[in-house]
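Summary for the steering committee. One of the milestones for this cycle was to obtain a three-dimensional model of the protein with magnesium ion bound, which we needed before selecting residues for the alanine scan. The sequence and ligand used are listed below.
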Amino acid sequence: MATFKLAVMAGDGIGKETVPEALKVLEAAAKKYGGFELRPTELPWNSDYYEKHGRMMPEDGIQQLRAFDAILFGAVGDKRVPEHVSVAQTILAMRRGLDQWANIRPGRLMPGAPCPLKDKEPGQIDFVVVRENTEGEYADVGGNLFANTPHEVAVQSAVFTRRGTERILRYGFELARKRKAQGAGKGQLVSVSKQNAQRHGQVFWHRVFEEVREEYPDIESRFLYIDAACMDMVRKPETFDVLVSSNLFGDILTDLAGAIVGGLGIAPSANLNPDKAAPSMFEPVHGSAPDIAGKGIANPFGSVMAAAMMLDFLGQDQAAQGMVRAVESVLSDAKAPKTPDFGGKAKTREVGDEIARRV
Ligand code: NAI
Ligand code: MG
């Protein structure tokens, strides 16, 4: 029996409400499918911790996390802590510190999920965005000169390394291959870039894309400029299978992708270290939602879907698929409990119970 040590960082606000539901559904899946056992450890690293210790995580937090097989994360964000501090000391610290270089966000429209596009049916939209997660435009390189004077200057640099660019593109091609083999994808890949305007980093990205695609003649690949990709994601999302992009472009593209397949209530995200040299982190896309926190009405679908991605990455694909089917079943059943954001009157806990029951 495989045993997985799971670090659970629920964080702030509704993270504390949705993550327990994901754990509940994980337990149900472990019981139903067998073959593995989860050992969760709750890590109270959030804004309360910051208030006591002046930081979001212990100094050796990243080191402590290395002892786990995976991290289930909720959200951070609280008015007591500046936003760039809470995110930098948790999410960004994990992404870089644990070399979680591939950010994966599926864009699949499930039956019952709200879609803001007209005439799009479940089954039509099914793609995955692969976003470079450790460098690019979010590399923390730059500085200020003459701060707080009239001639203030700010410089922010984007960093594209051969290692970082090659591995993310190759990951995308491998994923396209895997999806094709599973019958889930069409064997297509789009590299999203902007080499016409960013003549150094993006020209380099595109050149590496041209090189790597040679290794995958079985995958139909092309590139789109980021602006055109955004337009097509709204106009014809059914034309996408796998999209690969740099950090900033991927950030924007994945929010758009999430919005067309149901929005914050349901969107999950995985921060993978595909080399498995350090634990990967799985999180709902939503933040701490202070406007509804404490009311027990947050939608747990996103956290449950993130937990399903975690089981899949841990090699428990049967159990992962069981969890996804349970979410689909609750989502598409008009009589099943839903939280207010999905038009229902149910509490977070009731939805979690129902998903766990249907696993
Ligand atoms: P948010 O995602 O927390 O909320 C945006 C809107 O969507 C709110 O009206 C909220 O009530 C609703 N919403 C979000 N998740 C929901 C769910 N599961 N069920 C029902 N409704 C849901 O984003 P916002 O308001 O921009 O940020 C709030 C705080 O969260 C900020 O401090 C921000 O920095 C932080 N944040 C953290 C993230 C993370 O930890 N990954 C990501 C985004 C924001
Ligand atoms: Mg974002």
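Key point for the committee: The first strand starts at residue 2 and ends at 11.
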